[in-house]
């Protein structure tokens, strides 16, 4: 974790009426209703049984109008098969007013029924430009505020007074744009340790990699355990989202292979810098069998949650068995730090045509320890290949050849920089693509059930008998299947974002 350059004298909330115990009297009745409805709440489908206030800090005193509270709250939930409730820790920034202006109606959490905030209206402060500006000013000035620590790059120039607006895209966190100059990602679900969305961009920036916007400021907590809470980076104004670019190309009937090839080169550059900068590893028999077992466990758990997956489980499991058998036979794979959740929505093309890669948090639903361990680069490649397929299946008529050409171009672009074609690891690529499709099935079933036919089409394909080809860096074939499934019978309107 970083060290702040200076220390403030303002304390966190003390024990007493506005201390953690008293605040829960005001907060808990409202959070029971509000928190499970949030897009970033990870425990959907399970009842919240209790809340624990892990830390509370006044960023603006309650005597101010409005007041601003920073909270770390653990939501305890019953979990099937576990003797004790489990819970995730969430970061909440709560505005406090006597009455809420109409312009902030969408941010409303509710009026506190009891406790020290009784009668006051609580709301999501990140939707209030004024309070979002308070957080920005804290980031401009390094220092300590109770358990919160604010830090910034010594070379960063961060002007005051930039207007704040929330970024409207679906995501597992909350992002604010300040004056079209900076973007702040606030991590809603908090994990102990340094978040890879701070750690990896810092490492890449220090190594001179221009493919990733360098963090300019960030803030962390020291209690109850050290953890990253938010990262401020340059906002790439005028850049275009790779997902939207792909959808527009499909809609206009345009080829996207040049963009896919360039994106493959950018991915390889990022991987190369990470391998040169951070520790690497080699996956051997034990690690490979553990990896296959994890994938199998996720498959079986998802089939329990999404019965539509059940008929394909046996066929899908063969992908994981294949890498376990290779590991048992002595096969090894290089591993390093990777992006961990790479898809078209995590890429931006600037006005000069160069690609940038963003959002290094990894899949937020997975444990931080898993997201920060060295992994084969093929995992990132598989995520991008699934994204091309996702885009193609969003189009009517279905455009399978468009996806095939993009997948080939991406791998060729990657190989042109790295010297290794990801398709030369067909069993590992298939296993990671299968694991990603299983993740997509669970995501869509929970969040966008109308989109379930899209990953299910990939499930049908990936469950078929598989024979690895021996592609070279210029091969036009990734896998050879005995037959090809039909596309889904219905596809709803284009999604705003791919699964994440």
Notes on the protein architecture:
- This protein is α+β, with helices and mostly antiparallel strands and 500 residues long.
- Helix content is 36%, strand content 20%.
- It has twelve helices and 20 strands.
- The chain has a seven-stranded antiparallel β-sheet with strand order 6-7-12-13-10-9-8, covered by helices on one side. Strands 1, 2, 3, 4, 5 and 11 form a six-stranded antiparallel β-sheet that branches. Strands 14-17-18 form a three-stranded antiparallel β-sheet.
- Helix 7 (313-328) runs antiparallel to helix 11 and helix 9 (378-393) packs antiparallel against helix 10 (400-418).
- It starts with 19 loop residues before the first helix and ends in a 19-residue tail after the last strand.
TL;DR?
Helices cover 36% and strands 20% of the residues. With 500 residues, the protein is of the alpha+beta class.
Strand content: 15-25%
Helix and strand composition category? alpha+beta
Distance between the termini: 26 Å
Q: Quick check: average pLDDT? A: 88
Main sheet?
A: 7 strands, antiparallel
Count of DSSP-assigned helices: 12
Strand order of the largest sheet: 6-7-12-13-10-9-8
Global morphology:
globular
Helix content: 25-40%
Spans where pLDDT lies below 50 across 5 or more residues: 1-17, 470-496
Number of strands: 20
What is Rg?
Answer: 23 Å
Task: Outline the secondary-structure elements.
Elements: H1 20-34, E1 48-60, E2 67-77, E3 86-97, E4 108-111, E5 121-124, H2 129-140, E6 143-145, E7 148-152, E8 164-166, E9 174-178, E10 182-186, E11 189-190, H3 196-206, E12 217-221, E13 227-234, E14 240-241, H4 242-252, H5 257-277, E15 281-283, H6 285-305, H7 313-328, E16 333-335, E17 347-349, E18 355-357, H8 368-371, H9 378-393, H10 400-418, H11 426-447, H12 453-462, E19 466-467, E20 480-481
Antiparallel strand pairs: 1-2, 2-3, 3-5, 3-11, 4-5, 6-7, 7-12, 8-9, 9-10, 10-13, 12-13, 14-17, 15-16, 17-18, 19-20
Helix pairs in contact: 4-9, 5-10, 6-7, 6-11, 7-11, 9-10, 9-11, 11-12
